[in-house]
Design a protein that fits this description.
Elements: E1 2-5, E2 9-12, E3 18-20, E4 33-38, E5 45-50, E6 57-61, H1 76-80, E7 90-99, E8 102-105, E9 111-114, E10 119-122, E11 134-137
Length: 150
């Protein structure tokens, strides 16, 4: 199937790569079909692209690559919506945002994917230590040259 994107143009994507969010995403409940894209196998960043709207995409990361002690604790009922019965079939991503000079991750609203059924959902964690703006990294800048005139 063809998926139109704002950033990458039109892509040919196998139907089995489409991920369904039966409940949509928070703030975007009407968008149910998405595609996970990775720029290169070495990249830690992914794009979650709407399969139906070219202008709608989010940057994702696997939180364990940046936050080693991060755990997603959800109720079993929350995972039934995506038929996730075995934790080994699950994969967790978080949405990133650019905040001034920083990239932050929403650790409070992770996305849980069922690799077997190709379904996913966003869950809300009630841990007070988690926020929607955890710093991931600061882009490198060239050092300033400081000198004295002579």
């Amino acid at each position: 199937m063809k998926v139109r994107t704002k950033r990458f143009g039109e892509l040919e994507v196998a139907r089995e790569r489409v991920i369904e969010f039966p409940l949509g995403l928070l703030g975007f409940p009407e968008f149910k079909r998405w595609v996970l894209l990775q720029a290169s196998p070495q990249s830690d960043f992914f794009w979650l692209q709407s399969a139906d709207t070219p202008d709608l995409a989010f940057i994702l990361v696997r939180p364990q690559n940046f936050f080693g002690d991060y755990q997603v604790r959800v109720q079993t009922e929350e995972l039934r919506a995506i038929a996730l019965e075995n934790a080994a079939d699950g994969e967790v991503f978080v949405i990133c945002n650019r905040d001034a000079d920083h990239i932050t991750a929403n650790l409070q609203g992770p996305l849980v994917f069922n690799a077997r059924t190709r379904q996913a959902r966003q869950v809300v964690l009630c841990d007070r230590q988690l926020t929607t703006r955890h710093e991931v990294l600061v882009p490198r800048r060239e050092p300033e040259l400081v000198g004295q005139a002579g």
